[in-house]
Amino acid sequence: MSSNQVVIVDDEELILKSLKRALRRLAPSWSVHLFDSPKEALDKLSQGEIKPDLVMCDRLMPGTRGDDVLLECRTHNPEAIRLLMTGDTRVDMKEIVASNVHIFISKPFEHNDISDVLNRVMRIKALPLTDSVRQALGRLKGLPVLNETYQKLDKLLKRADVELDEVAKVVGKDPTLVANVLQAANSPFLGFRGQVSSIDKAVKRLGLNTIASIAVASSLSQTYNIDSKLHRDVVVYALSSAFIATKLMQLRGFSREQAEYSFSMCLLACIGELYLVDAPEAANSSELQNASQPISALITYYLLTVWGIEERLVEDILSASCEATCNSELSEVFCLARRLAYEDFEETLTDVLSMDDFAQWHTALNALKENPPEAVNLAAPK
Fold first, then answer.
1. Which of 8, 35, 43 is nearest to 23 (CA)?
2. Of 38, 167, 242, 352, whose CB neighbour count within 10 A is largest?
3. Domain boundary among 126, 158, 183
């Protein structure tokens, strides 16, 4: 039997047949287990007869909801990626998060959607984690799920021929994302001259990688109670560090692409911290406590991989989050920006300027001292 297995649960026979055909074409070596009865799937999973790498489940079925199947999977097969399929476009993100889900996709979906999910599953399997850490991460409750806006953007950004106006059109349909994108695009701290009110111009100013990272943060504001001071503080500090990192890279003369990359590193590094605010009990996991990496960094690493974020970016974030000493310019700017955002700005700046380890950044830091970052005002979800 193949070492890779997928369980598909849906009461619609056409969906089961369609997915089976797609998987035969996309992953011919995988073993596919189809169930039109949630109860039968629950029995097989609970008895350990199947050890799936991926469980795909419809949300609404007669008798048993897909949530119940995925809860059983989280309990007995924590290593498996849990995917919820739904045809309800009005579904609330908080309901999805409560459904023990890693990924959700809306019906109807395309073969490219399935191929993307399979790639994420294989990346998760390849992560250099111990079995106990992998299972502990898989058992975490209420993991955040990226919304439909991000999923649409992700599809666009994976195309080589993507046009900026296509991206702007997707951004423009999400009021919270619009507000956060415009704030970043109108930041004088980042050297932008003149105010823009057009999403098209804002997207062009910021660049596609920065837009994608802001879209992740915006999506999470729908998952969590961003009105909570603790949640807002985490996101605000992350955005502040991202702005600072971008400015420092600009002042050092790095390319726009490298500056955008540092923005993404700093902003996305907060994912694990944000989750722990919502689920502080996760920090009590003995398996995660015994890991060599910080718990928040591990959760970030796991979630970014589940979400299909670029592999190099995920690895760089983990490395920079765990390093005792910085061994690259990217990890240096990551460390500097986070310190300056999270600690007292003036005191930290004075301290860093006295350190030989960051001598190559002193000119940029002195310039930053003359033009300190403005306060970040996070847009509340609408």
1. 8
2. 242
3. 126
Q: Looking at residue 3, what is its pLDDT?
A: 81
Helix (H) or strand (E) holding 276: helix 271-278
Burial 1-15 (b: 16+ CB within 10 A, else e): eeebbbbbbbbeeeb
List the domain range (segments joined by +) for residue 59: 5-126
DSSP state of 89: T
**Which pLDDT score, from 0 to 100, does residue 1 have?**
46
Assign 3-class secondary structure to 97-125: HCCCCCEEEECCCCHHHHHHHHHHHHHHH
pLDDT in tens, 121-164: 999 999 999 999 999 999 998 888 888 899 899 999 988 899 99
Same-domain status, 90 and 32: yes
Three-state DSSP at 7 gives strand
**Phi, psi angles (nearest 5°) of residue 8:** -120, 125
HSE-CB for 326 with a 13 A CA cutoff: 18
Q: Is the dihedral of CA 90, 95, 99, 101 positive or negative?
A: positive
**pLDDT grade for 62, boundaries at 50, 70 and 90:** confident
Give the tens place of pLDDT for each residue, 308-329: 999 999 999 999 999 777 888 9
Tell me, yes or no, whether 55 lies in a domain: yes
CB burial class (10 A; 0-12, 13-18, 19+) of residue 363?
exposed
The pTM of this model reads: 0.91
Q: How far apart are CA 137 and CA 90, in angstroms?
A: 29
Q: Are 205 and 126 in contact (CB under 8 A)?
A: no
CATH code of the domain in which 297 resides: 1.10.3210.10
**Nearest to residue 171, comparing CAs of 145, 205, 142?**
205
State both tokens at 125.
């399997």
Q: What are 131's strand-pairing partners?
A: none
Q: What is the pLDDT of residue 98?
A: 61
Residue 217 sits in the same domain as residue 114: no
Q: Do the Cβ atoms of 197 and 215 come closer than 8 Å? A: no
pLDDT average, residue stretch 282-296? 94
- Tell me the pLDDT tens digit for each residue of 212-264: 999 998 888 777 665 678 888 898 899 999 999 999 999 999 999 999 999 99
Q: Looking at the 3D structure of the chain, how many domains does it have?
A: 2
Domain of residue 42, CATH code: 3.40.50.2300
> In terms of Cα–Cα distance, which of 214, 206, 216, 192 is closest to 164?
206
